Each structure stands twice: as C-alpha cells, then as structure tokens.
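User: Sequence in, structure out. Go.
Assistant: Echoing your sequence, followed by the structure tokens.
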Amino acid sequence: MSDKYDVIILGGGNAGLGVSAVAHEAGKRIAFVEQRDFGGTCPNRGCTPKKVLVAAGHALHEIETASAHHIEVSKPKLNWTKLIQREKGLISFIPDAMHDVAKKRGDVFWGSARFVGPNSVEVDGKVLEGDNIVIATGSKTRPLPIPGAELMITSDEVLSEEEQPGEVVFIGGGVIAMEFSHVYARAGTKVTILEVMPRLLPRVEAGAVAAIQAESERLGINVKTDVQVKAVAKSGDKLAVTYDLDGAEQTVKADRVINGAGRVANVETLDLNAGNVKHDRIAVETDEYLRSTSNPSVWVVGDALVTSPQLSPIATYEGRLVGENIVRGPAGPFVKPDYSVIPSGIYTVPALSTVGLSEEDAARQGVDVKVTTSDMSGWFSTKTYAESVAWSKVLVDESTDQIVGAHMVGHQSQELIHLFAMAMRHKIPASAIKNDMFAFPTFSSDLKSMF
C-alpha cells in the first residue's frame, strides 16, 4: 500500500521549500522527505552560520585599521569558544522554524529516500507515489582520494568545534578555504592552503583572485598552488600533510586538516536507476526545464543540480521555477531558468564579489568589450576608510553600451555588486549610470569611475 501525492520533494532545504511554496499555493498535495534537518546546508551548516564568523573577522579587520584613524587600541583577542557558541545560538531556531513551514504545506517523512519506480520512492519501509518527484537533496563535501582523508574535517566541524586550532591546512583553495582562512588568520591561527590548480578560485576573474591572494598573504596565509597532495597522517599530537611542489616532496603539520575542495551533488543513495533517471553517478541529466531527460516525472533543483552555481538564491529560484512548471502540468508551456545575471560574493575580509562575464569569458565568446581595471588603493574613499585592498574590473560591451561583467575586491563590493547586477538584468546602459546622481562621498558614487 502506498500514499499518493501530486509532488514528492526529496530534501527540505531552500530548493525544496521553493518548490513547495508554489505548489502549495496551487493546492497540490505535497510530501517532504528529509533526512537531517529542514533548511538544508546554507542556514544550518553553511552560508548563514559562516557569516557570523565572517562578521567577527570583519570586526578584527576594523580594529586593525584603527591606528590609521589615530585611535589607540590594544591587541584584540578573539574568544573562539564563545564565537562558536554565539553562531550556534543565532541559528538554533532555523530547523524547527523551517520544519513548521514544511508541515503547513504538506506531509513530512523523516529518513533517506530511494527510488523504487519511476513515480515512487521508499522511505523507512513506506512507499510514496508521486505524479512529480523533485530531487532537492543538496550537496555534500567532495571526497578526496588521498590516503588519510578520513583524518580531515569539513566546514561542518569548523562551524561546530569550540576549540580554536593553532594551525590548519586547507586541501583545496576554493570558496570554503578562502572564507574560513581569513577568519582563522585574523583570529591568530596559522593557515596554509594547498591548491592543485595553478591558481586559487580557478573559475573567478584572474585579476580579482590575484588581489585577494595578495591580501591573504599579507595576513600571513601561506598559499601554495600547483601542488599534489600525497597523504595525511598522524604525527604525534599533530597531523602531517605530505605534498609535491615543483618536483620536491614537502610536509606541513597542523592541528586540523580541512577539506576545502568544494561540494558535489548528494544523489548517490537515491537508487536513480530504479527511477529510470539517467545519470553518471554524480550528475542527473536534465533538460532545459530542469527535468530528467529519461523520466519526465522527475525534476532536479538546487545543489543537486550540477549545471548551475551552488548558491542559496539560485536554489530558491530553481525551486520556485520547477514549482511553476509542475503547476502548469505536463502540457506546459514550461519556464526556462535564466542564469545570465548571478551576483555572488566570496566572503573573505574584505569580500570578493562578481557578476557576469570575466575577461577570459568575453574573449572566449567573442564579445568586443571595453575593459577597465582599477586599483582603487589611491582613491579618496579607500584612503578615508584605510582599506587594505580595493580593486575592480568592469566590462562594457561597446556595441550595446551594456555592462556585461563586474568584479571587485574590497570597497564594499558585496553591496555594490548588486548595483551592477541590477543594471545588467534591467538593461540600464553604462552611460546612464555614469550620468546618474549618487550621494557623495560614498562607495556607491565611486561606481561611476570604475568604467
């Protein structure tokens, strides 16, 4: 005997809740299947609690600049234990609050789901049937095939362990490593980043990466790229990481070794074959509407979808879009996602923010752009606030007078990037922005001088 639903949502994070918001409003019968906690990675073990630590790093950065303003302060000391306790306290309400939302929209089943047919899943021995099944299972830490990998911790432990490590090594120089390394370094932890690629953050505008790497090294973070990590092993009360660099074997010791290699879709336990869902063990093959190419009853959204950025707003956007397509029914017409303008931030201190094409992207796509790169360290606003780094690169398509890419480090980039994004999304000409009026003196008013 099975229960029948209009929509079965596998996962109670932002993507799944986005689907349910639209489907519930349309009167659909919904089932949620959640294995761990509602809200998913971002609010419980990712972007939201991480920002609490970043805020502490920002406070330490502000104290560092006090002398530039002729303010005398003693050396600050961060109480790591109380910081982690504060972070846990700020987010503790989220799982129950999101669970309450889910219960108002449908039935909740706890456990791990697996397909037992094209339109059915089993959860803890109970079979659920659905006209539509949405895979919104999120992502998990990318496993690393390194001897001793079981000795590493992940961002989950960084956000939960109340003892500050004296030394850490990040294996992988992606977003996770960059963000946490800035907090650790400002708190007094010795940090090493080992990256297999020739540079950090390989998908980000190269000039922006160079600017944030220089700032990272100013903080004392030891960055090594183009390395091959050989093994992690216990060494007394420490962990030893052995790696090859320029043909020579080297070793670095630390209290904690952290997997900073990013995240992958969390789909391997779903038994996709039983659901007639085409996949390559990691990626589910989807069409332009985020629907399985082999089973039109199955949809994929959020971090479980490998073809779009792993960002919380994207997960919500995709969830709502799939919810809309489900409500429209098999005949459609369906809505396609638009990923052309996605502002994002890497919350180092200061932040690196980006939207649109990089210079490399523009060249590869044959877009004729005017590129304006600005070292803003000498600008009045930068000096007024004693910024340690301020850099930008803006790309304008001269044939259309449209901004097609913007990349910034510092200079309140995590806020200003949205002005660029809005201009791009709503087709505001670059010349119109230059001729517009901004309050002065502000960081925003500097935007007109960046291109």
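User: And one key feature?
Assistant: The chain is about 30% helix and 25% strand.
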